[in-house]
Amino acid sequence: DAGVTQSPTHLIKTRGQHVTLRCSPISGHKSVSWYQQVLGQGPQFIFQYYEKEERGRGNFPDRFSARQFPNYSSELNVNALLLGDSALYLCASSRTTDKTSGYEQYFGPGTRLTVT
Amino acid sequence: KQEVTQIPAALSVPEGENLVLNCSFTDSAIYNLQWFRQDPGKGLTSLLLIQSSQREQTSGRLNASLDKSSGRSTLYIAASQPGDSATYLCAVKGVTGGGNKLTFGTGTQLKVEL
User: To bridge B35 with a disulfide, which of A95, A114, B19, B47 should be the other Cys (CB 3.0-4.6 Å)?
Assistant: First the structure.
């Protein structure tokens, strides 16, 4: 079975531009989460979606938005890019969002975004 | 607010050595703790998941323990190999907060030398 896939793998944008990152979860997984990882730091939670609804949001500005489609794939959008948005953006999928569940989360290879 | 700390930040050992990586968290109200491996510039590979009701999990040369009441977890790697060189991250899924949110530590960068 294919793992979590993300596209594109690398992206270079200019300050002020907009970017869309895409993620396809593992087959059968209905929950997708997005994380930002700045060099040398651990990943920081941005959003979680389950069944097309937002189920969690981290401490990120409104320039960051996301959505989930009926096939459970997801897009992360970032508007008005800043230099500080340069990071590895990771997508994670899991079967459910049941808070009591012990389901593992599986991460994709990430999208490396560079803002110049 | 949950905070996760990993010690040491970096570690260099000779091949064959047994080693322990440490992870501590400030809020013991967690559902589970997960250990990940990250190679440079790559995504995260899940190594072990420990439920809050469990004390340890094992996979091959890896053994992870959890002491929820004291807010600590350790990852034990036996007979280390150069291929184990990577950054190891621990993450907790807390009772409070939204959905599937994981809170990560900053990682331990491991180098296993020949």
Answer: B47
